[in-house]
Design a protein that fits this description.
alpha+beta, Penicillin V Acylase, Chain A, 12 helices, Peptidase_C69, cysteine-type exopeptidase activity
Length: 470
């Protein structure tokens, strides 16, 4: 219905270099400019409020009590809907919503979408402030889908310090969720991703009531045995092979370079085990990639350079890696690494979950261009680098490396001081530190923009070597 094209990565805690869980996604929209802001909603108690979607008419009462939570909504709510997209709540539960997925006509014939059901524009608002764990997120959202139905296909990401879950809603009322094994990772890209479902393993799979009976009654299973969710509910068409599966292939190629696979295969695995342990930087690299170092890179002259849709795009509005660490105290453990720029060219900034507010440059995004806004600042940087890619990309690579070093130092130094604090003092400290980090990165971005513009002025085609003897 209002589905958008994104790319998702999920990583279990034993598959990461530091024992953290990670969920990550590129939030791609229909147009290059869909301004967003990054805010923190305070906890609420005893409210009486109804949520009504301006997109599809969905309406539902909001619970009286809700946790503090982060959100990254649109600023044009009346025109484009709220779409709060991603954030942690105060219980260190991460939600990223949603990875658009598409059910096939066979299953939708018997359980069609519900026009005014719970869609992506309302889903994070209805779920994030009210859950206590990743598994609880699946249960809670499953109850909402049973009650209200869904008007579209969606994949929803959840994590806490121990678990990572991926939930795919594929028809009006049916869904399956799978826990990512601790030692595994998964990549999804706008196509039903979950494969074999084990209904005898409720610790690692959850599902909508009656889904097995639904499939049996309507003769929807094409396989001779087993229950392959992708085969039953998903699509397998030409668009998938150009738009979706190549992104999964590239992510798996990066994490498992030793394995040869076809970028257009419909049978790329969902659950994978990487050749090495995965870092935040690894996930950022994949989300910022455009088939780098392959013949499919649109920045090359290869005849196949534009055969596939790249992962990073000019219409990626925000890209995020939501990390919950297990080697620091819980109150400082959750960090959302996020960029408003194109993830190929802009740095991911680390924002702590335990803050009371965000910096004004992130919290107040104007609709029209204003470089005081983080959204417009980092999109400006991205556009400049792409416009003279061959001439500017190395300077951008060097800049991003410097940013990663400085931001890793920021996290380590903040961790050391934060460990001495608790309660409101800790929240205030992390809030102040995040704002200082934003200011530091702003100066660094402005410096690079200035240098690139200065260099760009020498690259004009409207030039001529004048012979002074003429």
């Amino acid at each position: 219905m209002y589905e958008q094209a994104c790319t998702t990565i999920l990583v279990g805690k034993k598959a990461t270099v530091d024992g953290s869980t990670m969920i990550a996604r590129n939030d791609d929209t229909f147009m290059p400019i869909t301004p967003q802001k990054f805010i923190v909603h305070p906890a609420v108690h005893g409210r009486h409020e109804t949520l009504t979607s301006g997109k599809n008419g969905f309406t539902a009462p909001l619970p009286a009590d809700g946790y503090r939570y982060q959100a990254v909504p649109n600023i044009e709510v009346a025109e484009k809907g709220v779409f709060e997209e991603n954030g942690f709540n105060e219980k260190n539960v991460g939600v990223s919503s949603t990875e658009s997925v598409y059910g096939n006509e066979h299953t939708l014939t018997f359980d069609p979408f519900v026009k005014n059901g719970l869609a992506e524009d309302s889903l994070p608002t209805m779920v994030t402030p009210f859950i206590d764990s990743a598994r609880d997120g699946v249960t809670y959202l499953g109850q909402l889908i049973a009650k209200y139905g869904s008007p579209e296909g969606n994949g929803v990401l959840f994590n806490d310090k121990d678990d990572v879950w991926y939930m795919e809603i594929v028809t009006g009322h049916h869904w399956v969720a799978q826990r990512i094994p601790d030692d595994a990772y998964a990549v999804a890209a706008n196509q039903v991703a979950i494969q074999w479902v084990d209904f005898d393993d409720p610790d690692n799979f959850m599902w909508s009531d009656g889904i097995q009976e639904f499939v049996a009654e309507h003769h929807l299973n094409p396989d001779k045995e087993g229950f392959n969710f992708r085969h039953i509910f998903g699509t397998d068409n030409e668009k998938d092979r150009h738009y979706n599966t190549p992104r999964v292939w590239y992510g798996q190629r990066y994490f498992n370079p030793e394995i040869e696979q076809d970028p257009q295969s419909s049978e790329l695995p969902f659950i994978c085990h990487a050749a090495k342990k995965i870092s935040v930087a690894d996930v950022e690299y994949v989300l910022g990639s455009h088939y780098n170092e392959t013949k499919y890179d649109p920045f090359t002259d290869s005849p196949e350079a534009k055969k596939f849709r790249p992962i990073a795009m000019n219409r990626t509005q925000n890209s995020h890696v939501m990390q919950i660490r297990n080697d620091v105290p819980a109150e400082q453990s959750a960090i959302m690494w996020m960029t408003f720029g194109m993830p190929a060219f802009a740095p991911y900034l680390p924002f702590h979950a335990n803050v009371s507010e965000t910096d004004e440059s992130f919290a107040n995004t104007p609709l029209t261009y204003d470089r005081k806004s983080a959204y417009w600042l980092y999109r400006t940087l991205s556009m400049i680098v792409e416009s003279h890619y061959a001439d500017f990309v190395q300077e951008d690579i060097d800049y991003l490396k410097e940013c990663r070093i400085e931001l890793a130092q920021f996290v380590a130094q903040t961790d050391a001081e934060a460990a001495k604090l608790t309660g409101d003092d800790l929240t205030a400290y992390l809030t102040a530190q995040d704002k200082a980090m934003v200011a530091q990165m702003r100066d660094k971005a402005e410096d690079l923009i200035g240098r690139l513009i200065t260099k760009g002025l020498t690259l004009s085609k409207l030039t001529y070597n004048v012979d002074i003897n003429l």
